[in-house]
Every structure is written in structure tokens, then in C-alpha cells.
Amino acid sequence: MKAFTERNPVTIGVIVVALIAAGTTAALALNGGALKDRYTVQARFSDTAGLRSGDKVRVAGIVAGQVGAIREHDGRVDVSLQIDKGVELPGDVRAEVVVETLLGSKHVRLSGGSDWRHPLAARDVITDTITPTEVLDVGNTGAPLLEETDAAAIDDLLGKLERVTEGQRGNVGEIVDGLNRLTRAVNARQAEARRLIRSSRTVTSTLAERDDDLLRALDDVNVVLDGLAERRRSPGP
């Protein structure tokens, strides 16, 4: 029987490569959680926000699962979240797509919630979700709006403003300063105004509570006045 080192180098190379490939595959499987016991829930997002299958799921900053299948559903996106067994979450937990690096990699963060009477279970659907606003999305939305803007009309408006304020820079500055002083004065008087309003409400409520007493007092005054008037009309002795 030949020693291992005396065998065909090609055969040895094939065996070594096969062993390396098997070890790498096993390491990736273990790192990806292929052998972990997990339960799957669905998170319904408005869009994928660049999320991909295999991205991490984090709870309190700790990896607690990974993203599974991603499917479009009635204009929304259903994302399967494979959560590690033993990770307990409230039924009203929030799922948020978070940008992890400047290169755009993302993960799903599970946070919040207080419904521990109905903890999250397999096949549940998380509807409280948030997706990040991408810079490219803003650009894609803003570009058409800018293209539709009437640049000539804006230029005409700026020209008119320039002509109206021509030579009046000092006056405009004084107006702005005056408005600032007025704003500060109004702000300073807000506390006094609030106290005055509260006092007037107190007086009004007090008068409303003493309505009957005031009516009786007025009746008494009327009786006295009627008596005085009667005495004036009657002739003296």
C-alpha cells in the first residue's frame, strides 16, 4: 500500500480542494444559521428599500436572525424574517429597514412594542414597518419636479422683487428689524396674556356660579329704588 505522499499529486490536489470546499461550505452554513432552530414571520413594507435575502435581523443591536424570501404583494412587499428560537418579541413589535454601512448594506431592526400578552409567533405579520429614504429616491423624485418648474416665471418673479427693493435695502433691513422686535415683544407678553385669560375665565366662571345670587341682589336693588321713587311722588306731611 502506497503512502499518502507517494500517491498521484493530481489526486492529492483534488482531495485537498474537496476538503477545503467542504469546510468552507460548512462554515458558511453555520455562520448563516442553516442549522439554527428558527421561526418565520412576515414583515409588510412599502418597498424593499434595497433589502436582500440573507441580510441580518437585529434585536437590541444583536443578530437574532436573517432575512428570507422577499415577495411583492398587492403593491406592498412581504419580507420573511427568520427569527432565532428563544428570541421573544411583543405582538406589536416594529420592523425597520436600517442602512448599516455607507456601501448600502442593510439589516432589519425589530424594536418597540408592549403587547406581551400576545407575543410574536410563527406566521404572524408585522404591519408596523419603516423603510429609509434613499438619497437616490429623493433625486429621482426631485428631478422631474424641477424639470416641470416654470423657470422663466421664477426668474421673472425674482426680477420684480429686485426692482421693488432696489435702493431700499436700508428700509427693508429696518422693516425686518422692526418685525423681529415686535416678535420678541409679543413673545415676552405671552405669559402675561395667558395669566389675563386665565383670570378672566376665573371671573366668568365665578359669575356664572353666582348667577342666582346676582339676580336676587338686583331684585333687592329694584325694590329699594321703587320705594324711593314712591316716596318722591307722595306729597309730604
What does it look like?
This protein is an alpha/beta fold and 237 residues long. Helix content is 49%, strand content 21%. It has five helices and eight strands, in the order H-E-E-E-E-E-E-E-E-H-H-H-H. The chain has helices spanning 9-31, 135-148, 151-164, 169-209, 211-233, and strands spanning 38-45, 56-59, 62-73, 76-84, 94-99, 106-111, 125-126, 129-130. It has an eight-stranded mixed sheet with strand order 7-1-4-3-2-6-5-8, with no helix packed on it. A hairpin with a 2-residue loop joins strand 3 (62-73) and strand 4. The N and C termini lie far apart (161 Å). The model has no long low-confidence stretch (mean pLDDT 75).
Question: Number of DSSP strands?
Answer: 8
Q: Roughly how many Å is the radius of gyration?
A: 40 Å
Structural class: alpha/beta
Q: Which regions contain 5 or more consecutive residues with pLDDT less than 50?
A: none
Q: Helicity, in percent?
A: 40-55%
Strand count, sense and barrel status of the largest sheet are: 8 strands, mixed
Could you tell me how far the N terminus lies from the C terminus, measured between alpha carbons in angstroms? 161 Å
Mean of all residue-level pLDDT scores: 75
Could you give the order of the helices and strands?
Answer: HEEEEEEEEHHHH
What coarse outline follows from CA principal-axis ratios?
elongated
